[in-house]
Every structure is written in C-alpha cells, then in structure tokens.
Design a protein that fits this description.
OB fold (Dihydrolipoamide Acetyltransferase, E2P), BirA Bifunctional Protein, domain 2, 3 domains, binds 4-amino-1,4-dioxobutan-2-aminium adenosine-5'-monophosphate, binds magnesium ion, alpha+beta, eight-stranded mixed sheet
C-alpha cells in the first residue's frame, strides 16, 4: 500500500525508526546553514508532516535548501517520534528529490490571503488550509447524502441536464443550441427551432423535480443529485449560476412527511461530517466561524420550528426592527426577514403554506384556495437551504393552475399524464447542496464552497 500523510498519521506509532517514502508538496520551508524543515502536504490529510533534513545526510543539500513553497517532492526518510512537540512525529530525511520545482512568483505563500485574491487563483486555492477543509467536507457531504437516502431504500435517478421544460416556470434558463447565432434559420420572423439540434428549443435544467416525480410514481421514494443551472442575475453571497441540488420525491406522502424527511436528513448529514472531518471542523470552528461546532450540535438536538407564512409575517410585523422591505402577507420573504426569523427561533425554521401566486405551479392548492402546501427551510446565514412542497396530484386543479400561471400544458403533457394513471398524494424538496455546505462550514460566500464557481459575468477556469 502506498504511504500517504494520512496513513502515516494513522500508523506512525508502529513505524518508528522505519524507512518510508512520501510524495507531496511543500507548504512551508525554513532552512538554516546545516539543516532545514519542510512541511509536506500530500492532500490526503489536513495536517502536514514535518520533514527535517541535514547537510550530513543529503548530497543535494544546497539544492534542497532553495526549494520553494509549492514545489513537489519525493522524500525518503525515517520516522521519528517527537512526543514533546505539537506534532507527534517527524521524518528525518535520507534523500529528497525535487519532482517539480515551483517558481518564484507562486501566489500561495504561507500567510493569510484574502478570499477575493484566492478566488482569482481558484486553480491553486485548494492548496490552502481553508480550501483543503472545505473541499474535503464537500466530498464527505456528497457521501453522507447518498448514504442517508440509500440506507432508506430510496432510488437514485440521474435526471437529465438538458431538457425542454422549465420546471420552476420562472424563465431563468440557459439555452442550449447548435444554431449559428449570427445566421439563425427563420420561419416568418421567428427563429425556426425545428432546425436546431433537438428539433425544438432546449435548455439546461433548473431542477430535476418533474422527472423525479415520474420516478416516484414507479419507485415510491427516489432522489436526484446533480447540477442545476439558473440564469438569474442575482449578485448575492448565496446565488450561483451553476449549483448542485438534491431532490427527493416521496409518493403516498404529504407536507408533514416531507418536512420530517428534510429534518432527519439535515441532522444526519451534519452528524456524518462532524464525525468524519474532525480536524477540518475544528479548524473552521477556530478560524472561520466561532461557535460553529456548538451551533451544529444544537441543530442536531433541536426540534426545527414550523410556522406558516402568515405567522412568519406576524412575527416580523411585531418585531421592533426597521426592515428595508416591509413584511407583507402576499409577498416573498426578503433576506433580512429570513435572517430575523432564524435569529428569532435560534434554530432552523420551516415556513409553510405560502401565497399561491409567489410559488411554482406544481404546488398543491390548500383548501383555502389562496395558499399552497409549500415549505422553505430557513437557517441562519445561508437563508433558504431547502425549498419543497406537496405536489398537486389532482389533474383538473393542476391544469387550471398551469393556465393561471401561463405554463405551457402541451409542453408538460407527460407531467399531467402522471395524474391520469394512478395518481398519488406526493411531496418532495430540493436541498441546495452548496448552501448546505456553507451552513456546515461557516463559509459566508457560495463562491468559496464551489470548486470553480459560475456567477453572472464570471466563467473563468
Ligand atoms: O426553491 P427552489 O427553486 O426549488 C426547486 O427547485 C424545487 N424544484 C425543489 C423541489 O421541490 N424538488 O430551489 C431549491 C433549493 C433552494 O432552497 C436553495 O437552497 C437552492 O436550491 N438554490 C440555489 N443555490 C445556489 N444558487 C442558486 N441560484 C440557487 N437557487 C436555488
Ligand atoms: Mg425556493
């Protein structure tokens, strides 16, 4: 088995005085006349390993002395226990070979860099402590989510990335076309999409929900996990043009079942990360969000609040706060409102039963005919991390809602079909993966939890 920094940390007690070979990159380097210290990281573990080298042992001592931060090395050496130092062991080098030296202008030096600077060096920033932590947690969180659903016998489906429908009915789509934009085929004055690749207008998906609903009517409990795209010109810390979403869909279920599932999932995936990324979480707790670990512990133990949109507005109206946006019974919640509510309950809060005209066409109409069985989960800092609803399972009611909201029912005939052949009460939600990651890591900007973020006017790397 190849030796890695992670394996060495796990086994150093049995490796003392043994010879090992390591590969990695120089995170830090201090050299003296006759010896030097290199902190080597190979990406397998949050910590670095201290490599000590001496003139007596290295033929190429003078060359190694000049090794720059960022260079890649092959190190052969002996493991030595250092019980009186912060690090439990170090490597006494017997030979060091430079695999790839680093140039003088290497931007990632061992000091604090601003997040803005690091965003401009997104191809190198994963070599810093912060991004090592964030992206390892991102990977773990993926696993945690799959595990949560697979353990409960949910079927995973890969919903299509290219679609012809607008699942949210909000018109925020990126078009997919192979037409020559400088010379588009026209019929009358309109673009003739029958000449386009798919023979019709197509776009990148904004949500896999509609296809998940079709699967739920066959498998009962299903989920998607994939990228979604929104051409939304929002310049905020929580909006990205390309983000990942997890969309479970459950048949024979209502809004309460939906919220129960969401609450259980949030608690379990937080627990998984806290258990499997202890070093990373301790680092984030110290340097990114003070009290992060306590906050997450509280969430796992709390009962999430559940209030209706009307009750939420009541709370906001009674609050002695001068909001920039007046809270209103028939409007969406603004970010400042979400913040206030999260603080008010000091826990995640579900807001349910929203006015129908501000929500999507597929949400189930309540008996009052004014609100729909929708829920948003709001948490401090990240705001809305989950949006979901019970779905309209009644053919006639759905058709009428589509007409009212100008959704093309011809285009979504297949979706209406699901209500004709064995319809069921069903529900689902979308978890914003990147926002969940912000919440767990305490990182305040979505650009810093996505490896190579895409936002309006930014598609570098
Ligand atoms: O509330 P949304 O728009 O709901 C849907 O897409 C439904 N189809 C979900 C469902 O019921 N199956 O989006 C769901 C979540 C939001 O709560 C938010 O966390 C995240 O997706 N989200 C975004 N995350 C990052 N950048 C954006 N531009 C986002 N838009 C939504
Ligand atoms: Mg939403």
């Amino acid at each position: 088995m190849k030796m890695t920094v992670k394996r060495l940390y796990e086994t150093y007690e049995t490796q003392t005085d043994k010879k090992i070979t390591l590969f990695g990159w120089v995170r830090n380097h201090r050299s003296q006349k006759a010896f030097g210290f290199i902190n080597l990281n190979d990406g397998t573990f949050f910590e670095t390993i201290q490599v000590v080298y001496e003139a007596d042992h290295l033929e190429n001592f003078e060359e190694i002395r000049k090794t720059r931060i960022g260079a890649s090395l092959r190190v052969e050496g002996v493991v030595e226990a250092t019980p009186n130092r912060p690090q439990p062991f170090e490597i006494k080098a017997r030979s060091i070979e430079i695999v790839g030296d680093s140039e003088e202008d290497y931007p990632i030096q061992p000091k604090r860099h601003s997040r803005e600077f690091l965003r401009e060096h997104a191809h190198l920033r994963s070599r810093t402590n912060l991004f090592t932590a964030v992206f390892r947690i991102r990977s773990l969180l993926t696993h945690a989510i799959h595990t949560f659903f697979q353990d409960r016998d949910f079927i995973h489906l890969a919903s299509p990335i290219i679609t012809a429908s607008d699942a949210e009915g909000a018109g925020e789509m990126f078009q997919v076309t192979t037409l020559d934009l400088e010379n588009t085929p026209k019929s009358e004055k309109a673009v003739d999409y029958s000449k386009d690749f798919f023979g019709r207008k197509a776009n990148l998906t904004v949500s896999g929900q509609l296809q998940a609903e079709a699967f739920a009517q066959a498998f009962r409990d299903v989920y998607t996990f994939g990228p979604t795209f929104r051409a939304e010109k929002s310049h905020t810390a929580t909006h990205a043009s390309e983000f990942w979403m997890i969309e479970p869909e459950i048949a024979f279920a209502d809004l309460e079942d939906d919220m129960d599932l969401a609450e259980e999932m949030v608690k379990e995936i937080i627990g998984y990360v806290m258990k499997h990324a202890e070093k990373e979480m301790a680092f984030l707790n110290k340097f990114v969000e003070k009290g992060l670990l306590d906050k997450l512990q509280n969430v796992m133990q709390s009962k999430f609040a559940r209030i209706t949109h009307r009750e939420a507005i009541d709370i906001l109206k009674q609050a002695k706060v001068a909001f920039e946006n007046e809270p209103s019974y028939d409007r969406d919640l603004a970010t400042e409102h979400e913040k206030h509510l999260a603080k008010h309950f000091d826990a995640p809060v579900f807001v349910t039963d929203w006015p129908k005209h501000i929500k999507a066409f597929y949400m189930r109409l309540n008996d009052d005919k004014e609100t729909v069985a929708a829920m948003d989960l709001i948490v401090p800092k990240s705001g809305e991390i989950i949006g979901g609803s019970q779905r309209e399972e009644r053919y006639d009611v759905l058709l009428k809602r589509m007409e009212e909201m100008n959704v093309d029912s011809e285009e979504l005939k297949w979706y209406l079909d699901l209500r004709k052949y064995g319809t069921t009460p069903h529900a689902g939600f979308g978890l914003g993966f990147d926002r969940m990651l912000m919440y767990i890591t305490g990182v305040a900007n979505i650009r810093d939890v996505i490896p190579f973020p895409r936002t309006p006017k930014n598609c570098e790397f």
